[in-house]
Write a structure and sequence with these properties.
Blueprint (H helix, E strand, L loop, with lengths): L3 E2 L4 H8 L7 E4 L5 E3 L4 E3 L4 E5 L6 E8 L2 E5 L3 E3 L1
Length: about 80
């Protein structure tokens, strides 16, 4: 599966946060690399999206829709 850039999750992030988030910066909690959401490597295997750090490749964000409600896990990404 080929990675997309963080712009692929612009719509769901707009739905969740209520504003444009692809230019928001954050730090990877694994390697401390600071990057914009648009720079993340995004994989969309079907039920949601997984965003990985462009430097270390660790999962920094997961988006999934459960019972028609968007859930976002930012455990690996600290918004700055």
């Amino acid at each position: 599966m080929e990675a997309l850039d963080g712009n692929a999750i612009a719509g769901p992030l707009m739905e969740y946060f209520g504003s444009e988030m692809t230019t928001a910066s954050g730090a990877c909690r694994h390697c401390a690399t600071v990057s914009e959401i648009a720079e993340l490597a995004v994989y969309m295997p079907g039920l949601g999206a997984v965003a990985r750090c462009p430097t270390c490749g660790k999962v920094v964000m997961v988006l999934v829709t459960i019972r028609e409600e968007l859930r976002v896990d930012l455990t690996g990404f600290a918004l700055t």
